[in-house]
Design brief:
In the N-terminal section; belongs to the cytidine and deoxycytidylate deaminase family. Residues 5-125 form the CMP/dCMP-type deaminase domain. Its cofactor is Zn(2+). The chain contains 14 helices and 18 strands. The chain has helices at residues 4-18, 54-62, 87-93, 113-120, 131-137, 139-147, 177-189, 197-203, 211-214, 219-224, 243-246, 261-269, 286-295, 307-315, and strands at 31-36, 39-45, 70-73, 98-101, 124-127, 151-159, 163-165, 192-196, 228-232, 251-255, 273-276, 279-280, 283-284, 300-303, 321-327, 336-337, 352-360, 363-370. The longest helix is centred in the N-terminal third of the chain and has 15 residues, at 4-18. The radius of gyration is 23 Å and the shape is globular. It starts with a helix and ends with a strand. The structure holds ligand AOF and zinc ion (ZN). Zinc ion binds at residues 53, 55, 77-78, 87.
Length: 373
């Protein structure tokens, strides 16, 4: 059903969408290409929530040439009045003849209505061209809309022998500067960064974006849009002067014990939001934590923590994507494992699909997805 030219134009629309991937959140990143005959007459992408959608930019560029043209969009054109008017209406008004759509919008306010509006206006639609690629652009937005939970990426750094820290907890630095720069970009893609209090106490990590390491054209804007930092800290041990608290951007600390009133007040006075969660045996309810993040419109969570919390999240099936940086070092048998998951038989092992392995400086970046089949 999809021709070579469909792939060509949709690939371009996906490339355009990607330009908004650091700035569009909590909106999805979306790209649009308008083609008249075999000429591209309009291009656009969604840059920021509150600003025009991809189609509006592309239609403005196409002007009168949109009449009778084919529009390629990476996401179903919207049908609702949100922060901006409906794109389906704009496409109809501009006299577009056909709309090729990579995927339906999972937002229940749209979910098929945009396609219906176009069809009812006599515009031909085709849905599903390069759908897998389009879905990969917005895994967090899709997960939040469909499940009420964010997409969780767990980032870990390990030696070739699968170790992440020495027995003392010392872990800086396993990987090289290029991998750390890649982690900065993973942070910039995320609405929230989640860590455990252990990492804060041991490394005093700030978990912020830093311009020099980010190495992106939008760096100045991204520094203003720091991801929310989240610390899981059952007994409120985070010092009020920790860099995660005093650094730029919002901070949320989840605890599970009522007692520490003075510490709660000190953290609040330092600017952190402190929230009490349900707990079991003193352990924070991780599902509840993720659901609270969704109320803050968080699509993507980057889990940057030690082997204990990462292992618990993994075992509870709360990790959607695993990103492991593997460094060309051996840390020895006294060092800590990648994930604390005390399995005893092979029947417990978790299987993964590794979808990408690439060199980043002297390290390797491995992307894997839990295999739930
Ligand atoms: C489109 N084209 O480029 C984007 C769409 O608050 P608003 O008005 O910005 O609407 C946000 C919703 O619109 C978002 O949740 C998603 O359903 C859709 N995003 N739709 O037609 C775009 N970014
Ligand atoms: Zn729209």
């Amino acid at each position: 059903m999809a021709s070579a030219s469909d792939h060509l134009y949709m690939s371009r629309a996906i490339e355009l969408a990607r330009k908004g991937c650091y700035t569009a959140r909590p909106n999805p990143c979306v790209g649009c290409v308008i083609v008249q005959g075999d000429q591209v007459v309009g291009e656009g992408y969604h840059q920021r929530a509150g600003e025009p959608h991809a189609e509006v930019h592309a239609l403005a560029m196409a002007g009168a040439q949109a009449q009778g043209a084919t529009a390629y969009v990476t996401l179903e054109p919207c049908s609702h009045y949100g922060r901006t008017p409906p794109c389906a209406e704009a496409l109809i008004k501009a006299g577009v003849a056909e709309v090729v759509i990579a995927m339906q919008d999972p937002n229940p306010q749209v979910a098929g209505h945009g396609i219906k509006m176009l069809e009812e206006a006599g515009i031909k639609t085709r849905v599903g061209v390069m759908e897998a690629e389009a879905r990969a652009l917005n895994s967090g937005f899709i997960k939040r809309m469909q499940t009420g939970r964010p997409h969780v990426r767990c980032k870990l750094a390990m030696s070739l022998d699968g170790r992440t820290a020495m027995a003392s907890g010392e872990s800086q630095w396993i990987t090289g500067p290029e991998a750390r720069s890649e982690v900065q970009r993973l942070r910039a893609l995320s609405g929230a960064i989640v860590t455990g209090v252990g990492s804060i106490l041991h490394d005093d990590s700030a978990l912020t974006l830093r311009e020099t390491e980010l190495n992106l054209p939008d760096a100045a804007e991204l520094l203003q849009k720091q991801p929310l930092r989240v610390v899981l800290d059952s007994r409120l041990q985070t010092p009020a002067d920790a860099r995660v608290v005093t650094g730029p951007g919002d901070v949320m600390i989840f605890c599970s014990v009522e007692a520490a009133k003075a510490r709660k007040q000190a953290l609040e006075a330092a600017g952190a939001e402190v929230l009490m969660l349900d707990s079991h045996d003193g352990r924070i309810n991780l599902e509840q934590m993720l659901e609270i993040l969704v109320t803050k419109d968080i699509n993507d969570v980057l889990l940057e923590t030690g082997a204990t919390l990462a292992g618990a999240m993994m075992q509870q099936g709360l990790v959607d994507e695993l990103i492991v940086f593997m460094a060309p070092t051996l840390m020895g048998s006294g060092a800590r494992p990648l994930l604390e998951m005390p399995f005893t038989s092979m029947s417990e092992k978790l299987n993964l699909n590794i979808t990408d392995i690439r060199a980043v400086g002297n390290d390797w970046k491995i992307t894997a997805f839990p295999n739930n089949d």
